[in-house]
Amino acid sequence: MTGRRLVPRWGIVAALVLAAVVGTILVARGWHDDPTSGPVRDAGPAAAPFTGLTAGTVRIGGRSWSVVVADTLAERTQGLRGRRDAAPYDGMLLVFGSAADADVSFTMAGVPAGLDIVFYDAVGRPVGRRSMVPCAGTDATCPLYSAGAAFRYALETAPGAGPQGRLEVGRRPA
Predict the structure, then answer these.
(1) Which residue, among 158, 72, 144, 147, has the nearest Cα to 106 in the 3D structure?
(2) How far, in Å, CA of 117 to CA of 102, rounded?
(3) How does pLDDT run across 13-32, given as a tens digit for each residue?
(4) In the CATH scheme, what is the code of domain 36-157?
(5) pLDDT digits (tens, 9 = 90+) for 57-114
(6) Which of 22, 67, 81, 115 is the most exposed place for a label (fewest CB within 10 A)?
(7) How many CA atoms lie within 13 Å of 62's alpha carbon, on the beta-carbon side?
(8) In this structure, how many other beta carbons lie within 10 angstroms of the beta carbon of residue 87?
């Protein structure tokens, strides 16, 4: 009799764990109930050479920026490696999901030109800014660049082109 009761309990526990895992993955990928709560507007497929990624616009300091979006681990890891810039976009926005802030470092391994990076928290406040120099080495041998604080978004741009001001995040008018 006890064995029969354990199977349904384990089934319920397994279903709850599976739902939590799937929910975490969906949230980490930026899928949540309110699509107007993130910073990217007018999202759609990115143009070449970023085929397969998403592109859109963000507002920073009152100005619109055309960005290609890297919102998965693989996309963020690839970043702008092998590219001199983000053209035809103003920059690459790295999105670290909506569940928790990130505290990771960046490397310029395989990036042939310098970049500026601005880090933003979940509500769009800038929390760090760095100028990154190209590095012909590997992830293990190149310098690391950190925000110095937890962040949710990072915008990579050409040197000197990094925006000033707050990243607009949150509910926007329909």
Answers:
(1) 144
(2) 15
(3) 333 333 333 343 333 434 33
(4) 2.60.120.1140
(5) 999 999 999 999 999 999 999 999 999 899 999 999 999 976 678 889 999 999 999 9
(6) 22
(7) 0
(8) 12
